[in-house]
Hints:
Blueprint: H1 12-21, E1 29-34, H2 49-55, E2 63-65, E3 71-73, E4 93-97, H3 112-123, E5 138-145, E6 148-153, H4 174-177, H5 189-193, E7 201-207, E8 211-216, E9 230-235, H6 239-247, E10 254-255, H7 262-269, E11 274-289, H8 315-323, H9 327-334, E12 339-341, H10 365-374, E13 387-388, E14 391-392, E15 394-400, H11 403-417, E16 422-428, H12 430-433, E17 451-456, H13 464-467, H14 493-502, H15 508-524, E18 528-541, E19 544-545, E20 563-564
Amino acid sequence: xxxxxxxxxxxxxxxxxxxxxxxxxxxxxxxxxxxxxxxxxxxxxxxxxxxxxxxxxxxxxxxxxxxxxxxxxxxxxxxxxxxxxxxxxxxxxxxxxxxxxxxxxxxxxxxxxxxxxxxxxxxxxxxxxxxxxxxxxxxxxxxxxxxxxxxxxxxxxxxxxxxxxxxxxxxxxxxxxxxxxxxxxxxxxxxxxxxxxxxxxxxxxxxxxxxxxxxxxxxxxxxxxxxxxxxxxxxxxxxxxxxxxxxxxxxxxxxxxxxxxxxxxxxxxxxxxxxxxxxxxxxxxxxxxxxxxxxxxxxxxxxxxxxxxxxxxxxxxxxxxxxxxxxxxxxxxxxxxxxxxxxxxxxxxxxxxxxxxxxxxxxxxxxxxxxxxxxxxxxxxxxxxxxxxxxxxxxxxxxxxxxxxxxxxxxxxxxxxxxxxxxxxxxxxxxxxxxxxxxxxxxxxxxxxxxxxxxxxxxxxxxxxxxxxxxxxxxxxxxxxxxxxxxxxxxxxxxxxxxxxxxxxxxxxxxxxxxxxxxxxxxxxxxxxxxxxxxxxxxxxxxxxxxxxxxxxxxxxxxxxxxxxxxx
Length: 568
């Protein structure tokens, strides 16, 4: 099979130059298909990539990451550094200067007060901000004038670029969200569906889990952009239908996250209407272990720390589940050249990649059985399911609806049966599973199952905020609107201490050591079982120019540069 994984960066300067000469809104409608349909436009109330990326057409941060992982200024004039005086010598503050003349889509000016408010919004008690780790260590924010933002930390912060950087930490308009702090945040439907932004587009119509219609922002700061007058972002369906709609029928210009077997993609691409674009980053397909009891008998307190899991709190059981998995086969059938076996949840950048967990690369059914025997999990009644003290090893295994994931579920169920674990399979529509609705019982945050499978990654190339996701304070619960990021409900004070240490460590080699230590602690406690280091795979029409696939930020990060190619 031919290799297709190259960073789409070459030959784009000429395309962007063509786009820059076009008049704003001169290229008609852009049709985008996200088969996991967005359910909200506010990334602070959802950890779902599809919601974050839809929101990025409207809401923008001070800085973001380009397709190479380099940080670039966005709403800010420049990236503050020690050298230019933007970062304090004692590392306790960073000063951002807003670009002059930036307007919200309603025509009012963006000010430093909006930036400060965005921090207050995410950190408000009871708000359930899904991105709260971005704002760790901030003591206060000063706004000496309308364009100056001084972020003060509670101690030295060697990497001060987590707040307001990347698609997950954009600026909200204070005037629009002022009455949406704390527990009121999820109740502000109008604001969450129709946010006022500084981005290239505005929301005209939002239908949750279905379709979003955008139009060009008349107050966007570049008078020549965006090239498209309208964007239709359609959600729903599946990855197969999305691939066909772009590559075979040409009904859509861009299809996101084509999680399909490699031979399927090759056949679609051979139709000649579009091209697959891909790159590797830190996107890992993993199984999450629930350390709490999801049983419905616990009512509103199910899957909370109030009720430890009856057998997944046994590390030996978690380890045996990992040992039974043939990751090489999963890569082969699910991703081909678009996947690599990984034993880490932090496989990249290379400086952070640990080799301490490589034993997971080899399936060991016999070893898993020996391990379970040794700790007293045996099949006492001969029904094929191991038990101990009246508790049987029976799992509910959930994931989103997707052909590759259902294939994975089937194989893993079989391997687990070979070590005496019975598994019930469940799949949930991706728009619901990743939707973050605190009222839904089917979200991956609620985690009303024993194990679940999905993929996740992080903004940029520094993993500090990402690794902070597994602090005790990040556990989803009714108290934080089920918006925490620590899905396993893992709570380890030693891990918390490493997170705190990384926040005050500047030397790159030492930061790498700490990152590896945190990764290894999670892996060797078996609270997550990494499966595949996945390449990001999408596709676009041959008539669409300006696309630069970005694994480090929103895929739609440079949509202002997209344009319709002239007919040949």
